[in-house]
Design goal:
CATH topology of the largest domain: Jelly Rolls
Strand content: 25-35%
Number of domains: 2
CATH superfamily of the largest domain: Jelly Rolls
GO molecular function: gamma-glutamyl carboxylase activity; vitamin binding
Pfam families: VKGC_lumenal_dom
Shape: globular
Distance between the termini: 36 Å
Strand order of the largest sheet: 3-10-5-8
Number of helices: 2
Largest sheet: 4 strands, antiparallel
CATH class of the largest domain: Mainly Beta
InterPro entries: VKG_COase, VKGC_lumenal_dom
Helix content: 10-25%
Number of strands: 10
Protein name: Vitamin K-dependent gamma-carboxylase lumenal domain-containing protein
């Protein structure tokens, strides 16, 4: 079972995540619903760092090991290798607010072998992804002919690191991003909050 909730204090504490998983199991059991797994995909930004996962989403938190005296194996390490990007990200956000107040930017970092699935709402304008470090594979699912002009279902493509090679995603699509490099990936989303009728085809 995957639990989707608003962010809370429990999200950054391993023991509270365990308790929350058990709470879900107990509450569903009272409704005659039996589950044997709870996985959580929690993202957080610590002190202006890039948003990253807090726990390993592949781990079943029902019965997962936890101790106040030992390192918790399913808590993800802090990606310190991207610490130098903090002032760059801060300056970019400030500048973007001045020149394009309708734009939003989100910086994220992820671990090798993990994937992130996102839905691009239809009421947004251009949504572009810029890969800053590492290597990723993007898969897009949509009924839009922009995604798949041949009508074959989902389109998949791979791109390498490069600040001059952004990828645009159409509104109304589901995007899956997997880090396929042997080192963590760093990437940013640029989102135009004003809808547009003119969509840019994939780069």
């Amino acid at each position: 079972m995957m639990a989707w909730v608003l962010n809370g204090r429990w999200a950054s504490h391993a023991d509270m995540a365990i308790e929350y998983a058990e709470c879900i199991r107990r509450n569903l059991s009272r409704r005659n619903v039996s589950i044997d797994a709870v996985h959580m995909d929690i993202w957080s930004s610590l002190n202006g760092r890039m948003s990253q996962r807090v726990v390993d989403p592949r781990v079943n938190l029902l019965g997962a090991p936890w101790s106040p005296w030992e390192a918790v194996p399913w808590v993800m390490p802090l990606l310190e290798e991207f610490a130098s990007w903090r002032p760059v990200a801060r300056g970019f956000r400030d500048r973007l607010k001045e020149v394009a107040p309708q734009m939003e930017v989100l910086f994220l970092a992820d671990f090798p072998g993990l994937s992130l699935e996102l839905y691009i709402p239809e009421d947004l304008g251009d949504v572009s992804l810029w890969l800053l470090s590492g290597r990723m594979e993007a898969r897009v699912r949509s009924d839009s002919e922009v995604c798949d002009p041949e009508g074959g279902g989902a389109d998949a493509f791979v791109w390498d690191v490069g600040p001059d090679s952004p990828v645009w995603f159409p509104p109304g699509s589901v995007v899956s991003l997997e880090t396929v490099s042997d080192r963590p990936s760093l990437f940013m989303f640029l989102v135009d909050t004003v809808p547009s009728d003119n969509f840019t085809v994939f780069d």
